[in-house]
Fold these 3 entries.
Entry 1:
Amino acid sequence: MNLREKYQKEVVAKMKAEFGYANDLAVPRLVKVSLNVGIGKSKDDPKVAETAENTLKRITGQQPVYTLSKKAISAFKIRENMKVGLKVTLRGKRMWDFLEKLINIALPRVRDFRGLETKSADQSGNLTIGFKEHLVFPEIRSDEVEKLHGLEVSIATTANNQKEALSLFKYLGFPFKNS
């Protein structure tokens, strides 16, 4: 059973029982997953941006979009409209496939992983996970890597608060630290 089927068959029923929702559509659901890579530190080296772009493309199967700086900051040597990062937004089937890979393959491969912090879910019901190295994803082979970079995964939900979101994520199988 894949993650989407698990959500429809098991998670909706558990959430309705726990929070007393009137119908299935009132149950919080996942909206999108955003992956971000910041390339601001190594903005002078075009190879880093190219590596980050190829990494995101391989991990998600989608073409990333460059994020541009909104204003100039002289202390960071950034000019307005300068490329400072890359992002990809996943929805639908690609989102569910990515989350399955994240839960079952990528998170267990993180060195010294003891579970996600419950405080990584915000008050709006969204979860953000940061990776120091992009090597945890199965599409990236360690012998091909020239430069390491981190990335951030943000999962947006329709949950009204942190408690609902944490229940949703736990029922989906996200490994949280025992609190």
Entry 2:
Amino acid sequence: MLTKNVVIAHRGASGYAPEHTFSSFDMSHFDMRADYIELDVQMTLDGEIIIMHDETVERTAGLPGVIKEMTLAEIKKIDVGSWYNKKFPELQREFYTGQTIPTLDEIIGRYGAVNYYIETKAPEVYPGMEGRLVDILDTHGLLTPERLHNKQTVIQSFSMESLIKVHNLVPLMPLLLLAKKEVLRHMTDEDLKQINDFVYAVGPSIKDLDQPLIERLHRLGFLVFPYTLNKPEDMKRLIDAGIDGAFTNYADRLRTAFNAENSEIFDEQDSM
């Protein structure tokens, strides 16, 4: 079970390649050896789970289109790689052009039984998303007792309601609560203890995270994985303050900052 120096590749290697594309995930997983692939899920008009941060395709495709109003066939026609070459000419690669939006099925088909952090994005927009997500994970064998115990398949969300739905479907599912600035700081210990009954980790914003808050969250039983840790000075500050891992667009930088290049993903005694 990986609980220390955890490198979570935020939308893949999104600091170097177009987010949520195979090029981005390939780089973070095969080249940088991040501990987890992190991705956001949305749901199409015809009920397919796709990998996308926004509810529209405008930012990453430069086209109008609301995902919940589009079929998978329509979405598969969209190029979500070209924008990156235009926005970041110093990082452009010819093969980024033509990258398409992957489905969750395609991601698992490509990377197999690796470690996943999956965020239910805007779950209130997609009734039944949690059930569809769980079905796909189960079909691919990612909800075995061993994987759940080792926290290899983790669901995360800013929505407590969504996490509760997942918990009701799979009581042993490892869950992480994402929290915007100030949210965790202003929650009472009692409220946090109640959440810790089924949420094992929290993902605070780095904007207000400090050592006293990290220590408080640890004392209440949580692992602490802040988002999004990209700058060297922030990495040093929060690693020194005691974080357990982090979401990052630069998995290579964070691995170096943790000085954990040879860390093992799992402890064999915890693999039962």
Entry 3:
Amino acid sequence: MKNILPIFILLIFSCNRSNVKENSKQDLILNGKTFILYPEDDDENLTIQFLDSTCNLFEFHAYNQPWKLIKFEDSNALVLGHLIILLHQQNDSTITGYSIGEKETKLILKEQHPKWKLENILGKWTEEPWIGIENSKIPPPPARIPDHDTLWPPYYEIFENKIMSYCLGIDSTEIRFDNSLVYFNMKQHLHTDFVGYQNDWKILDINDSVMTIERRYTKEFFDANTLQYLDNVEIVRLIKNR
């Protein structure tokens, strides 16, 4: 996926408008919505969230990209960075588009609605390996600050606009959910000693007691006495605290 996505993004935004049909003059509303964007005859896709003047491309890990919607030859045109896509509202949840370039590709934007319940996401969560660790005979590692020696075992607390980590120390950052409630990206890295610097989470599955996520994080390590950073992705199961 990581190797295909850059090629995919270049491909879908390098198209010809020779067969573009005249769009209606109705104003499209993208702001505040999340779409799956994909070429008509391709399985690759991107999740794109439109904010006031910026957007997030989640699979591409590109955040705060500039965008605007303008009228172009009596059509609605999406300007995404230096790219222009002519859009047509097909129905209430689907938009079709043609980008301007050398080749012709029809694009589909499918609006995404909440996949999960927000109340299931909010609350306190413990990673599965730490469940019951407080009852074992293995003592916890020393806390960096003595007052934090009771923050064991580690757990997270998720609010609508913030996530906190309690792991022999406290860290927090603002978060933003997309409209599908599948992704939330962090305004700043969330740091824990065991994981490193977490960047964002994708919720793969959730019920009222278990949440499975895919998270990106950066870990520090020393190589030949030089501090290095390694980016990684892992799937983690979290258990809700009762």
